[in-house]
Amino acid sequence: MAVSYKELGLVNSKEIFAKAVAGGYAIPAYNFNNLEQMQAIVMACVETKSPVILQVSSGARKYANATLLRNMAKGAVEYAKELGYEIPIVLHLDHGDTFELCKDCIENGFSSVMIDGSSHSYEDNIALTKKVVEYAHAHDVTVEGELGVLAGVEDDVVAEHSSYTRPEEVEDFVKRTGVDSLAISIGTSHGAHKFTPEQCTRNADGILVPPPLKFDILEEIEKRIPGFPIVLHGSSSVPQEHVATINKYGGAMKEAVGIPEEQLRRAAKSAVCKINIDSDGRLAMTAAIRKVMAEKPEEFDPRKYLGPARDSLKELYMHKNKNVLGSAGKA
Ligand code: G3H
Ligand code: 13P
Ligand code: ZN
Q: What is the DSSP string of 302-325?
């Protein structure tokens, strides 16, 4: 039996995106796969009074089970209230690749879906996206489309090379598909290794400095579709302190580099109203777990390492909301 997101107390992205574009901030879209990640997201967003998008990839659905994830999202709404402040919560499918997957999510409590047709030809992307939009809108569910290809792993799709979004296509794409928001490619990419050392310069401390995002493309897109909600994927900053902790306690993360937070802050002030962050959370959790494992080898209670991992995640998300996305205080 189908379950509507409205029964779960969730909202779609329409109103929160309109407010974010007008207010010059971005809504955080944090991926979750388990209880501790969900708890950290809700605690951080309630404490900072931020709207939030709980983001689920198809890999997360396979890992954690669709029924459990739906009920966790329902639990997140109730948990936020219990923590003392009601925030808008969206349950969003990240990188949906087929109409059937989007439909299944819509029938299972998702209030927003992404159909990522970016690996298809322009016309096939339009046809697939339009089909999803028609079904989703009939259920009051919002849809994110994508134009341009991000390098790195797009869920199960791996693109070796990125191609920037072509501003001359965005107006036509938005008009013909009816999407509610558009993910664009301006130099971000998925994962913890966003650029090769050859693509970067080094600062005085030898830290890799990546090339800047293509703000000229973003501005051109904004000119063509003024006020239309824009999404940035692949927006982890890859905090070097977490990378260092991972490496200190037995990890092997070489030359990991992300998007500098000042650039994300600048993007959030524009029509970019949703910023996707997954890898930074993975790094924060892994660093905290490795530290406990190394310093307290006698521990075998999962709460003793998942607890600190959750605390570190919460701190990361609070920082992002307050200092990077500008979403704190907007709920
Ligand atoms: O864009 C990809 C997200 O970080 C989700 O990653 O497919 O490994 O769950 P995943
Ligand atoms: P990161 O890998 O940069 O965290 O990007 C996550 C993302 O875009 C999820 O869709
Ligand atoms: Zn993504």
A: HHHHHHHHHHHHHHHHHHIIIIII
